[in-house]
What we know:
The protein is α+β, with helices and mostly antiparallel strands and about 475 residues long. About 30% of the residues lie in helices and about 25% in strands.
Amino acid sequence: MEVYDILIIGAGAAGNCAALRLLSLGYRVALVESSVFPRPQIGESLSPGIHGIFDYLGASNLLSAPHCQHQLPAEIIWESQQPLLLTPQTRGHGVMADRGLLDKDLLQLATSRGLQLFQPARYESSRHNGAHWEVNIQPYGKDALSLRARFILDARGRKAIRQQQRLLTAPSMAAIWAYVPASRMPAHTCVEAIPDGWIWGAPLYDGRYRIITFAAANTIKRKHLHDIYNGLLQQSVLFRQNKELHPLQSCAVTMYAHTQPWQDYRLQLGEAAFAIDPLSSTGVEKAMRCALQAVIAVNTILKGGDIQLAQEFYEDRIIKSVVSHTHWTRQYYAQAWPGTAHCFWQEHGGSYLPEKHISNSFTEKLSSALQEEKPVTPPPAEKAIDINYVLQQLWNGKPMVSPAISYVPSSCVVNDCLEIKTAIKHPNLPGTMAFLETVEIYPLLKMAAHTPTFGSLVTAWSQLMPFQKAAKMAIYLWDKKVLLPQ
């Protein structure tokens, strides 16, 4: 029986991301994938945050491949019926990629870095013996194999979850799509709200243009698929000229969270953990971030860290992702021009009470957080401050730590592992903070209590970091009224 530290099932964006990061940490990693690559895969839109992840993985060169398109404008009909053209500078540097080829490139990169790959091979069964997972796989055309691993990371996407394991977070939709020659559409992405749903269109690198419609889940039960699709296109402005497209494909689109994303050292990754509304176009980025968070939890345990801390960290990150994106999409649906007079928009723009199939601590926390209707607002822009001028004015004053501060224990990532640190809370801060500019805040504030002037405080901090960084941090904390001049 071959033994690994981690066995990953599924070579999509999440599985490949986890493999690359775990290999860089020195672990022995195996991956089982049932399909031959490249395989067809929708979800071509990659949000701007993807660049930072690929840089972190040492994979940024993959985004320069011919099947990745950059700097595409977007034409949108949403809040009003007038088209709005967004330039790449306005909407951010996203990427339009062929997902099948991109996943293949990521997998080849991981294999070149030491990944043990079983492809094509079918995952058959697994059993936890208290210390390891014993996994049976069936490579196609070969004898069955048994593998052993401390952790299983399940990244098989939606097919990894049974219906009773899904906690639905929003009303379901039906997606229907087809392709037209790119010459029949503008050389940019298009998004349009229509009375009975919305439509997304994107150019592909191979000369095709995909047009995908989203409507109420029960739509496809009432009519012939072509009639539904053509009817939706005829409601649009941007897509109306495209008729009788063949062949049509369809699928159900559900937004959910796995009711038990962590069980006996088996973690669900990416869409095997949760699926967000395609409206956000951030599904790939969030799947990869989920994988990176799983790696931190796994690394913490394998390095001898606290198991409960690791599990709570991973589950809390899933809850935060699901809640923030669910609230954002509700608000965005509520802003669409068709308004609540149309059933689709009334259903998706209003509150939704999740159905629970399994009740446990994770689903209780998630359900409670989803029912807290908090508006999603962008953080306020930071005002420009002349650091040198302000520091000069404060230099001889005595600093005092604000009495409005409270101190709370918080799990923090330190050298790819989780540790408990003392964090601060203050009404002017965006949330609980343990680090600022990668420096732990609490020890710095303790120094302020014994320092006679702001100048001597910044000088003392500059023994731990460059002077300009110390000055910038001191002025930031003064601006937020965490540090007060006496």
